[in-house]
Design goal:
By secondary structure, the chain is of the alpha+beta class. It has one domain: Alpha-D-Glucose-1,6-Bisphosphate, Chain A, domain 4, CATH 3.30.530. 34% of the residues lie in helices and 47% in strands. The protein has a seven-stranded antiparallel beta sheet. A hairpin with a 6-residue loop joins strand 5 and strand 6. Helix 2 packs across helix 4. The longest helix has 29 residues. The protein starts with a strand and ends with a helix. The mean pLDDT is 91.
Length: 163
């Protein structure tokens, strides 16, 4: 299943990048998205930030997904390589369940659309190779991802208005 999320913001690409990299912003978005995040690895070398984080949803999974993954909450690691100068990140998701059957990867970038406007463009691919329920799991995860980005956009807009 294709992932494509485009969000527009009334600020420069540099300002948006600074906002989303701010630790206080990250904490606020975790609360809005109802997730806990643990940093497993973080190192910067030559303008490239390599990170691995573990994300645990505080929200219980619906019955079908709970049965398929054998857990009541979604837990996954996210590996990210961010080019700090280009405001772009390549990411890959490694779920705690059936990692060999789930492929999810893509990019996130901030693109200037004017002097005081930009877009955050998230694109990628989600494929769950579990017979009978794979498509439903894909839809559920992509829906959660879209909801999470929508909540994050609300926080971003509050931060833009405050600055």
């Amino acid at each position: 299943m294709e992932i494509r999320i485009v969000q527009r913001f009334p600020c420069s690409a540099q300002k948006l990048w600074a906002i989303i990299r701010d630790p206080a912003f990250e904490k606020e978005t975790r609360e809005a998205a109802n997730v806990d995040v643990s940093v497993l690895k973080s190192e910067e070398r030559n303008g490239i930030l390599s990170e691995r984080v573990r994300i645990t949803s505080r929200k219980e999974l619906p019955g079908l997904m709970r049965s398929a993954v054998g857990a009541d909450r979604l837990v996954y690691d996210q590996e990210m390589e961010s080019d700090l100068a280009k405001h772009s990140t390549a990411w890959k998701v490694i779920p705690a369940f059936a990692a060999d059957k789930v492929k999810c990867a893509g990019t996130s970038k901030i693109v200037a659309t004017g002097p005081e406007s930009c877009e955050r463009v998230v694109s990628g691919e989600m494929k769950v190779s579990i017979p009978l329920v794979g498509g439903k799991i894909e839809q559920g995860i992509v829906s959660e991802l879209e909801n999470s980005y929508a909540k994050t956009a609300e926080v971003i807009n509050r931060w833009i208005r405050k600055s």
